[in-house]
Amino acid sequence: MKLERFFNRHSVFTSDELATFLASEGPRNPRTQESLLLYHVKAGRLVRVRRGLYAVVPPGASAASYPVDPFLLTSRMTKDAVLAYHTALEFHGKAYSVYEHFTYLSTAPARPVAFRSHQFKGVRFPGALPPNVAASFDVVKADRAGLEVRVTSLERTFVDVLHRPDVTGSWEDIGRSLESVEFLDLDKVTSYVRHLGNATTAAKVGFFLEQHREGLMVDEAHLSALRDLRPQHPHYLERSRRKAGRFVAAWNLVVPQEIYERSWEEPS
């Protein structure tokens, strides 16, 4: 009955979380936990996602088809996992597209995991940030089915997806997603850009904010602060894909024409 109480409160859990619970009930042989997990997997009460990570199946439901919350699984891929990039956009309800792959930040990401139709992949925290800043700056804690999930705030997510579009999605998807954001704390945005210390990212953030100046109520002070961080010489919007485009002198940024014109938007 005590184990059932744990299952009822932890729809997704790690073997370490179970070990902590069992230890609170008194000393146990580690093999006892292994036997318990194996028994409940065979009985269809648990689904093994990967080694050390399990999902609970309600009584009467099918272990083969019962839906498991992918956001909870992402949050338990490592002890310090933080939902990020497109996954954070989805979590905040700002993603234009729904993806089958989920991304998290971690000091030491686990190997990529495939579970049913979902793919889970970790990305290291930005190396330019001190470890304590990388893991905590503008990271919020949210409740999901009674469990704590750590996710980058909308402000940090906004910067992160522009900083690492390669792990986020297409520029159309990024543009459409960010255009759905209705409000940003621009002090937090500029502070995080300073922490990253990347001139190209500062230019990308400034360029996007300037394009959406009215909707996001962007004042000149924030744009000026970002201009001070821009590159001294022209940089490509995505340096790994040097594509010709429009040179935006205000940001020393070469922007592909379709992004500059936001070609995905419907003609007015």
Question: Could you explain how this protein is built, in words?
Answer:
The structure is a single chain. This protein has 268 residues and is α+β, with helices and mostly antiparallel strands. It has 2 domains: 55 residues, no CATH class; 191 residues, no CATH class. Helix content is 39%, strand content 19%. It has 12 helices and 12 strands. The strands form 4 sheets. It has a 4-stranded mixed β-sheet. β2 and β3 form a beta hairpin. The longest helix is centred in the N-terminal third of the chain and has 13 residues. The radius of gyration is 22 Å and the shape is elongated. The mean pLDDT is 91.
The description of the largest β-sheet is: 4 strands, mixed
- Find the structural class using helix and strand composition: alpha+beta
Q: What is the number of helical segments per DSSP (H or I, 4+ residues)?
A: 12
Alpha-carbon Rg, integer: 22 Å
Number of domains: 2
Percent range for β-strand residues: 15-25%
What is the helix/strand order?
Answer: HEHHEEHEHEEEHEEHHHHHEEEH
List the strand order in the largest sheet.
4-5-7-6
- Quick one: how many beta strands? 12
Terminal residue distance: 62 Å
**Average predicted confidence as pLDDT:** 91
What overall form do the CA principal axes indicate?
A: elongated
Can you give the helix content as a percent range? 25-40%
Low-confidence parts: none
